[in-house]
Amino acid sequence: MNNTKSVGIIGLGTYVPDKILTNKDMEKIVETSDEWIVERTGIRERRIADPSMATSDLATFAAERALADAGVSADEIDLIIVGTATPDMLFPATACLVQANLKAVNAAAFDLAAGCSGFVYGLITGAQFIQAGLYKKVLVIGAETLSRILDWTDRGTCVLFGDGAGAAVLGETTNGFGILGADLGADGTGGDFLKMPGGGSKNPASKESIEGRMHYIHMTGNEVFKFAVRVMGESAVKSLQLAGLDSDQVDLLIPHQANIRIIQSAAKRLKLSMNKVAVNVDKYGNTSAASIPLALKESVDSGRIKDGDTIVLVGFGAGLTWASCVLKWGKEAQYIAK
Ligand code: UT7
Predict the structure, then answer these.
(1) What is 179-328's CATH topology?
(2) Which of 225, 320, 322 to mutate to test the pocket of ligand 1 (most atoms within 8 A of CB)?
(3) Which residues are catalytic?
(4) What is the CATH number of domain 7-175?
(5) Rounded to 5 degrees, what are φ and ψ at 274?
(6) What is the reported pLDDT for 51?
(7) In terms of Cα–Cα distance, which of 254, 261, 268, 335 is closest to 302?
(8) What is the pTM of this model?
(9) Ligand 1 center–CA 194 separation, angstroms
């Protein structure tokens, strides 16, 4: 990107609930099988949040860990962006609830509704404020309690999703590190393919909306699948082009974790072998906006991402939306710049 300031991730934190629901457990809930779920999606288990916890709680845990990782205190945060499809309430924004929990008294706060693309949308949005010189530190969170809006009688959706949260602190970094290229996009004509129709101004909560099961995820899976296969590769290539890089210079691809077959097709489009692709959909299912930061943190912790590596984050989701960015990783370099 043609900017003077380099902006990157200077701290990461995640949180997943302890409760595990395996495919065998799902067999007791709907007519499905471990074999079908693994073969068609790659998912083996997912996490389910305790009823006492809402999205803002998961987001707060992840954010506290990201702040500690960055060595940044809550009052240094200028802005909090929460990407979520499962806010605590329609309003106030979940980001405001997190701001209160963290006592991030100097932070502005808003939610970003880009479905599963929410975390990468948030990263790119947050980076603009730093590049413009308005803010120095931005906290970007992807957090979901999708288990609350799943129709546990619909085997086409309830086996796919899980709960979790991931957070990143964005700050100015040493020149050449951080975000090198990015791409955001939307195609609202596909909005009907993935939605929760009830509870907003179109279908406010009513007896009819409840009887019509409108307060759950409704998805036309095969349409979302086709869209995902196309945009994941296209968007990643666009970000790489903006960064002046080819896909053979990518050290690790961190795709949205929705379905192993979608991930494999994105890897194929980028001519990347699967050992250059982060996969944890087997453990968490689709955690929507949380999936990319969860996979990113896991890759950093396991040593799979090293200083100087070129990594690509790419997601797609409700909207329909897509988002990708290329990052040059270098925590040490980033810490110097902090
Ligand atoms: O983050 C963005 C969110 N969404 C996604 O990324 C979803 C993208 N889409 C997908 O991942 C896939 O389309 C699904 C996993 C949702 C479905 O896989 P598919 O290979 O497209 O299956 P399908 O919908 O074409 O269904 C094939 C069959 C159907 O049976 P019939 O009509 O052929 O007899 C379904 O009823 O599989 C059946 N089926 C199931 N069977 C066992 C659907 N869900 C299940 C299930 N267990 N859980």
Answers:
(1) Peroxisomal Thiolase; Chain A, domain 1 (3.40.47)
(2) 225
(3) 116, 256, 286
(4) 3.40.47.10
(5) -65, -15
(6) 97
(7) 254
(8) 0.96
(9) 14
